[in-house]
Amino acid sequence: MAAHCSRIHIRFHPEADELNRLIVDAYRHMGEQDMQRRSHHFAGRYENLYIERERIPAIGRVMEQAEDDARAILQRHGPLRSGFWFNDMGPGQSTSEHDHDEDDELLSGVYYVQVPEKSGDLIFPDTRIRTVVSPQAGMFVFFDPAVRHSVSINHSAQRRLSIGMNFGPAPE
Fold it and tell me: Which residue among 35, 43, 163, 168 is least crowded, i.e. fewest CB within 10 A of its CB?
């Protein structure tokens, strides 16, 4: 499943099968006009696709679980600010090494919606130890926003769909 390092936390959503089916179905019916915005254009695709939370109601349930997990990991009891985006990775595509340490993020994460076999691993190339996480549908992976990471090439014939997320302090 995964090699662990102290900065990576893995959880699973208890209702993943149902939620992932709903998310994939709604996502497939969306078009360019449904994207709130897109960012990080590399190798012919936008890595980050932003859609309003209300457009896919099942995302609310995923994000509620993610926020609960983030509070537990961060040992915070109050509300957090959270944001999310889709990463739709087709055959032959990958995600270059990057981090999420851009603002006041406290925690970053990814939730896996659709994960065909051989569709790419999440890689944390730490200077001391390289950690590789083989994703599964319904899996959350949480990590420090300053930790660099990438996704290896999707060697499957299908698309992989995941949801990236960041958590920060709630506005006063």
Answer: 43
